[in-house]
Amino acid sequence: MSTDPAKSTTYAAAGVDVEAGDRAVELMKSAVAATHNANVVGEVGGFAGLFDVSVLKDFDRPLLASSTDGVGTKVAIAQALDKHDTIGYDLVGMVVDDIIVCGAKPLFMTDYIACGKVVAERIADIVRGIAEACASADVALVGGETAEHPGLLGVDEYDVAGAATGVVEASKLLGPEKVSAGDVLIGLPSSGIHSNGYSLVRHVIAEAGWGLDRNVPEFGRTLGEELLVPTHVYTGELNALFSALPDAVHAVSHVTGGGLSANVARVLPKGLVAKMSRTSWEIPPVFSTLGDLGGVPQEDRERTWNLGVGMVLVASAASVDSVLAACPGSWVLGDVSTDDGSLASELDYVQGAKGVDGGAAILG
């Protein structure tokens, strides 16, 4: 059956540009390859990423750790500013830092980008950021996928997601089972809002009529520049910490959605409470400025944003000085004690957060 050329319909006519996808791969290829180590088998472009796990033979009981996440509505800021080379750091931080918290070393990562139209340079910028962040954490970027969804996403719209796998020796697994009364909470500074709570951020600035090009004296830069500060990736420094001080840290909390108390509570065993002091650190201006601009109640700020605390280490009291010395910018945030029930009626008391029937936390 012949086809009338005048009436023929091609994939390109439907909105999918295969050639643009190929160009994007060529532009990102060197950045991705730079994350590969001796354990990566094959080159960029295979149907599946291959990773040699022969090293697992040296483990007594290797536990694989996996994590998947996205960046959320922060991508809307990147799209509005047409700046896409930092959003990859946000993705990597959200994924691999959820693996390092249990003491596992992230091994490799994959990414997925869905877009309305493949613009090769834009896709390459996104993946270049992902690759650079992976390299900073010693994680191999072994594969990914870019999917063009015309009609579902606008031509300048995209979303990103990723997944990673790591490994930890069972005896070195960090978590509630290792935490006890007397342990000390050590805060690690965030680089800003990271990638959580941007729906609230965008609502606040929209209601206030603030443009992303607005210069904000408190920030020392424009609003858009402040909002696009990439998530700090902690995996590299925590890997080094765990190697140097293998028994110092008992648990780690990644402060993401839900805020400080909810995320700390989920790494404590039932019967213990983390008492944290609001006066132990200075909240960065971005949180107070946006919170005041939108009239955001303090409780909403604390359960939505990290407020300057990106990670919390639960360490033995004897190792506090060593951990502080190993982690620039860190400070003592509070401590862990037996939960005698006396704090349960307090407004700031959080227990059983994120579906975990574990310990409690209070920010006072």
From TrEMBL:
Residues 63-168 form the PurM-like N-terminal domain. GO terms for cellular component: cytosol. Pathway: Purine metabolism; IMP biosynthesis via de novo pathway; 5-amino-1-(5-phospho-D-ribosyl)imidazole from N(2)-formyl-N(1)-(5-phospho-D-ribosyl)glycinamide: step 2/2. Residues 181-339 form the PurM-like C-terminal domain. Its EC number is 6.3.3.1. Keywords: ATP-binding, Cytoplasm, Ligase, Nucleotide-binding, Purine biosynthesis. It catalyses: 2-formamido-N(1)-(5-O-phospho-beta-D-ribosyl)acetamidine + ATP = 5-amino-1-(5-phospho-beta-D-ribosyl)imidazole + ADP + phosphate + H(+). It is found in: Cytoplasm. Its main location: cytoplasm. It comes from the Bacteria. GO terms for molecular function: ATP binding; phosphoribosylamine-glycine ligase activity; phosphoribosylformylglycinamidine cyclo-ligase activity. One of its GO terms (biological process) is 'de novo' IMP biosynthetic process. It is an enzyme of class 6 (ligase). Pfam families: AIRS (PF00586), AIRS_C (PF02769). PANTHER family: TRIFUNCTIONAL PURINE BIOSYNTHETIC PROTEIN ADENOSINE-3, TRIFUNCTIONAL PURINE BIOSYNTHETIC PROTEIN ADENOSINE-3-RELATED. Belongs to the AIR synthase family. This is Phosphoribosylformylglycinamidine cyclo-ligase. It comes from Brevibacterium sandarakinum. The gene is purM.
